[in-house]
Amino acid sequence: MDFESCYQLGYVLKAHGLKGELVIEIDADYPEEYSEMESVFVEVNKKPVPFFIEYIRLLGSKATVKFEDVNTVEQANKLKGAGIYLPLEVLPDLEDDAYYYHELVGFKVIDSNLGALGTIAGFYSAGSQNLLAMEYQEKEVLIPLTDEVVTSVDKQTKTVETTLPDGLLDIYLSDDAN
Q1: Which of 62, 77, 68 minimizes the C-alpha distance to 24?
Q2: For residue range 20-40, what is the model confidence (pLDDT) as tens digits?
Q3: Quick one: CA dihedral 84, 88, 93, 95, positive or negative?
């Protein structure tokens, strides 16, 4: 298994207790859909390593998880901050107009006022705000993922249409942004 055939479900926040439990953040619209997971991949030394789940207790977007073979707080602490991944094939199918963020990497960004801008390189979560990362004039530009800014996504033409806030690109192109 490699990262290209996985999607990031979340990450390890911290160890919990003394017997190897972990608190993980599940970055999904419906975290409860993941309450029956039997295994996940955890990023260890920049590689996805399979871990089998003894139990999982969900509370909102956070879960307390006990992996098999992680039995001490020291072992659990080594996983702090690690990404949690699942294979792409377990993603639920979406309606035609819906999309997963990872599907949009490589799509062209076309602004209603500025025309063709760049290519989507990835996504970030900044608290309650999700951001689209676009490569533009050899710089990374972060675009808020809101309905007002990202107005449509066309999977057929691999384009994302936006209406960028005035001055957003200028922030990234100014000499001070280096």
Answers
A1: 62
A2: 999 999 988 788 989 999 999
A3: positive
Is the pLDDT confidence value at 69 over 80?
A: yes
User: How many Cβ atoms from other residues are within 10 Å of residue 32's Cβ?
Assistant: 12
In whole angstroms, what is the distance from residue 168 CA to residue 178 CA?
A: 15
109 CA to centre of own chain:
19
Taking the model in full, what pTM does it have?
Answer: 0.67
CA 92 to chain centre: 16
111-152 per-position pLDDT tens digit: 999 999 999 998 887 767 888 999 999 899 999 999 899 999
Tell me the DSSP string of 48-102.
EEEEEEEEEEEETTEEEEEETT--SHHHHHTTTT-EEEEEGGGSPP--TT---GG
Query: Is the Cβ–Cβ distance between 37 and 66 less than 8 Å?
Result: no
15: tokens are 């160890």
Distance CA 167, CA 88 (A): 37
Token pair for residue 105? 């990497």
Residue 175 has pLDDT above 80, yes or no: no
Q: Measured over all CA atoms, what is the biggest interatomic distance in the chain, rounded to whole angstroms?
A: 56
